[in-house]
Each structure stands twice: as C-alpha cells, then as structure tokens.
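Milestone 3.1: sequence recovery, worked example.
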C-alpha cells in the first residue's frame, strides 16, 4: 500500500521508528566495517566504510537521515518487522554513502 508524502514524513520523524532505524543503521555500519575490500572498486569500499565510521561518530544524525530514506519506501510502516527495516537500511546504504552501484 503506497503511503502519502505526509505519511512518510510522519513516520520518518516519529521517535520510536527513528530509534529502530538507528539500531538497524548501527548493525549495518558494523557489518560494512567488517567487509572485505573490493579490489575491483576501491572507491566504493572507501565510501561505504567512511559512512560506517561517520555513523558511529554521530549515530543520532545518521539515524534520522536513514529514517527519511527508509520511511519513503512505500511498504515500510510503523508495524514493519525489524528485518524489513534492516533490509531497507542495507538497500539505501550506498545511496547515502554516495557510493556507485555494485557492477552486475
């Protein structure tokens, strides 16, 4: 079910939702920090890791940034599972990091 823009904005700024997203972002940052270097695309690796470092330096700021990206996914609602929120955080990581997409 597609959300309205107002619904997305309300969700993105709702503290209980933002805290769940922040937790998912911290998990993603930990996982990205442990990734093996991609020798075919070192700039992508560098950008992804820089975001992971910045997340831990300022988790509240990045929790809110990611909350907006997650809340604009039309299938995400306040009742979405933790797994759905984690999947969505992981799927927008490269966008927020400014990293180019992984070559297919």
């Amino acid at each position: 079910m597609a959300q309205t823009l107002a619904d997305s904005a309300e969700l993105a700024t709702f503290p209980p939702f933002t805290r769940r997203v922040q937790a998912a972002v911290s998990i993603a940052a930990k996982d990205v920090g442990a990734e093996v270097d991609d020798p075919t695309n070192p700039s992508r690796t560098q950008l992804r890791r820089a975001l992971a470092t910045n997340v831990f330096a300022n988790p509240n700021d990045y929790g809110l940034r990611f909350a907006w990206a997650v809340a604009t996914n039309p299938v995400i609602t306040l009742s979405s599972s933790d797994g759905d929120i984690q999947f969505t955080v992981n799927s927008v990581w490269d966008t927020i990091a400014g990293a180019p997409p992984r070559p297919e």
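The first helix runs from residue 5 to 12. The CA atoms of residues 23 and 63 lie 8 Å apart.
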